[in-house]
Write a structure and sequence with these properties.
Alpha-Beta Plaits, 6-stranded mixed β-sheet, two-stranded antiparallel ribbon, 7 helices, 18% strand, globular, single chain
Length: 280
């Protein structure tokens, strides 16, 4: 039986929260059932998904530097392949901007043989900050998402392969990522920055090892080690129950201060449905 098949990358939980709200709203209207697949951890990226005829694909990812996260892009490109399945693209961003991420995801859907009928960019708390985007999605955001789901459900109820696909702003094949800036607007160079653990606070619980999307956190004498690739997702820091993990790189901290100062004004969620005008 055809289902809503949800695929998501959500290291800190914000994207999962939003995509679950969307999937549940759609299912209340379509009554087809929902199946979730996380590709957040390395094990979730070991097998490519299979989409049956009639499946509705809901794909969700956070925005990293204005695009689909670099280290997941090859998987997403390989996984988004279907035979005319209707699809919905969803990106979450931390109140700065979604730049080309939504266009990139919609473009991959079209190139992979899907028919994207809707696309949305939702604000969630910024992974780097405890204040930027805090409390999002708000009640207003959720109400807007429900309205978007209703519009998409209407399109899906009469879906056929000849329907128009959604158009969104941005570049479907961007070449560059957003350059993070420091206070003063000079480029911030923290690509190699990694978290550190305060041994006095660490309880050796091992929770940080379980949540790293890159599988990069090791262990020595019960303490976490950060030797592998770090995508700055903050999963380890946010999962730590004692606050033992922190990013202390000065360039990184300057960037956080800059975005908190520059992008404090709340951004609005944006929605796109095939055959309708853009809504916010």
């Amino acid at each position: 039986m055809a289902k809503i098949k949800v695929h998501y990358f959500s290291p800190t939980g914000g994207t999962l929260q939003v995509v679950r709200l969307m999937a549940e709203a759609l299912d209340r209207m379509l009554h087809v059932g929902v199946e979730y697949h996380s590709y957040t951890l390395p094990t979730g990226r070991e097998v490519l998904p299979v989409f049956d005829a009639g499946d509705i694909v809901l794909w969700a990812t956070p925005v990293y530097a204005g695009r689909i996260p670099n280290k997941t892009l090859d998987y997403v490109r390989a996984a988004i392949h279907a035979n005319g399945n209707p699809s919905i693209a969803l990106v979450t961003f931390g109140n700065r901007a979604y730049d080309n991420a939504l266009a990139e995801l919609v473009g991959l859907m079209k190139e992979g043989g899907m028919k994207p009928v809707g696309a949305a960019a939702m604000v969630t708390r910024h992974a780097f900050s405890d204040t930027l985007g805090a409390g999002r999605p708000s009640a207003e955001d959720i109400a807007a998402l429900d309205h978007f789901a209703a519009q998409v459900a209407e399109r899906l109820s009469t879906f056929n392969a000849q329907l128009l696909t959604v158009s969104v702003p941005g570049e479907a094949h961007p070449e560059k990522y957003y350059t993070p800036l420091k206070v003063g607007n000079a480029p911030a160079g923290f690509l190699e920055a990694k978290p550190a653990c305060n041994s006095a606070l660490c309880t050796r619980c091992g929770k940080c090892l379980d949540v790293c999307p890159m599988g990069s956190i090791g262990e020595k004498d019960g303490m976490p080690t950060f030797d592998g690739i770090c995508i700055k997702c903050q999963a380890c820091r946010r999962r730590c129950p004692t606050g033992a993990i922190a990013f202390t790189d000065p360039e990184y901290l300057s960037h956080v201060a800059m975005i908190e100062r520059t992008f404090a004004a709340p951004k609005r969620a944006e929605f796109y449905v095939a055959g309708t005008t853009h809504s916010r």
